[in-house]
Please model this.
Amino acid sequence: MPEPTVTDDVAVAIADGVERWANDRVQPLALDHAHKMDPALIEEMAEMGLFGLVLPEAYGGSGLGLAAAATVIERLARRDRSVATTLGLHLGLGTRGLVRWGTPEQHERLIPRLASGKALAAFATTEPDAGSDLTALRTTIEAHPEGISVRGTKIYVTNGGLATIFTISGRSPGLGGARKGQSLMLLEKGDKGLEVGAEEGKLGLRASSTTTLNLDDMVVGADRILGAPGTGADMLRHILAWGRTVMAAGCVGTAVAAYTATRRHTAERVQFGKSLDKLAVVREQLADMAALIYAARALVDQTTADEENLEVPSLSAKVFASECSGEVCDLAIQLHGGAGYIEETGIPLMLRDTRITRIFEGANDVLRIHRGLFAVVAEAPPAADGSASAASVAARKVRAEAFRATQNAKDRLGIRLAGDHPTLHQLGARAILADAAEAAARRADREGNETSAALALRWAEMAASRIAAIDAREPAKLQSERCMEWSP
Ligand SMILES: Cc1cc2nc3c(=O)[nH]c(=O)nc-3n(C[C@H](O)[C@H](O)[C@H](O)COP(=O)(O)OP(=O)(O)OC[C@H]3O[C@@H](n4cnc5c(N)ncnc54)[C@H](O)[C@@H]3O)c2cc1C
Model:
């Protein structure tokens, strides 16, 4: 298992500067009320070189890797999630395909503008009839006597109203000799037939641009195809894994911000003659928040440490970090009491902003099914010769439980397991809890201090109790069909 590279001095120094800048310049509530990104903030981020962070040095970028992007996005998200999403989408889904599969000509033409921040990137795959099911795309990419024709409608495009360069996906029957398959295209604002729709009104991330994208009988040159025609689905898997990881780092940032505000509030607020953080139940809740964040950061760092092996770790990092941020923000509201419900405290905005992360870049329940499938195919039992630390021993027990459940399901269902989504969903849930417990234990072993050991152990114990709760809800016992007959 490669060591996380997130402590890389360059990335941390950049992230420190970014956090200082954000605290000074970004006003989250004002952006939320304005419902749009402040162009001055984009300009200032461009001046800091942030849009080129992970783009190749040969074309004006900084050539840093996923760990650097995750570190910067986490710090930015501590201040404001809309700003972090605008940059994160550009560094993740928006430019990843171009960097990895673009031709030298495409790099030369597009990356200098993207690296300088003169052009922002967007990524459009979701359609009205293709959300979680990306095999249902209706956008077509077809050969045309003058190049390639593109026709379709994309929805919920982050950065849609700001971007000039769009990576889009579509069905491409016949293209490149493949009878079926999907392809990716690089389109530009100003291309004839490309039309950006109005901004959506949203629950959160209100200063992040989200629009439709109409691709109306476009004809563009064949040089706009990204990568090999017909291999779009494979490219999407990598792009989504990279983007999910950047997004998971943003979730850690929001959770850190909510926790920090809650520590401050519970230290200052006096009830029953003492500060809230001296009350036993509150202390338990604060400790749970800390353990969740510790495990989520460990999982994200572990994921970014191995860029060539992102698919499975990024599923766990995305699901776990998004749920961690939701849980931590919810507890933050609870522990702020009535003040937690008042917009001026900034806590409701954190909860609103982070809610979408359980849905976009793969709905968590769909990703749990994917993680469950990987568990069925390749889950290994816990290593017998691992570390003897209490957290590692507890994490191995969690993995053993997840492994046992997977083996039982395989024995019980055999080949039928492949189509049994409720069971795969539960197996995926267990595997993700185990992934987080192992990552936290490894992090604690590496850090080698008592606080880290306590956090990792606490999370392993929380994970064990969550696995027990899943065990108690076996799909076969739940009478779903009967329950759904009821109309309230
Ligand atoms: C603010 C915002 C920004 C976005 N940005 C982008 C972007 O930049 N680019 C882009 O391409 N897309 C983007 N999206 C789209 C986003 O990725 C999709 O909304 C998401 O993938 C879910 O698709 P859907 O909305 O069609 O939900 P559906 O697929 O209709 O699913 C609805 C719900 O049903 C459940 N569900 C569906 N299938 C299953 C299953 N097999 N098993 C269990 N449960 C299931 C899940 O709970 C899911 O949340 C964005 C969306 C929003 C709201």
The longest strand covers residues 147-158. Residues 89, 123-126, 131-132, 156-158, 202, 205, 210, 356, 359-361, 363, 365-366, 369, 421 surround flavin-adenine dinucleotide (CB under 6 Å).
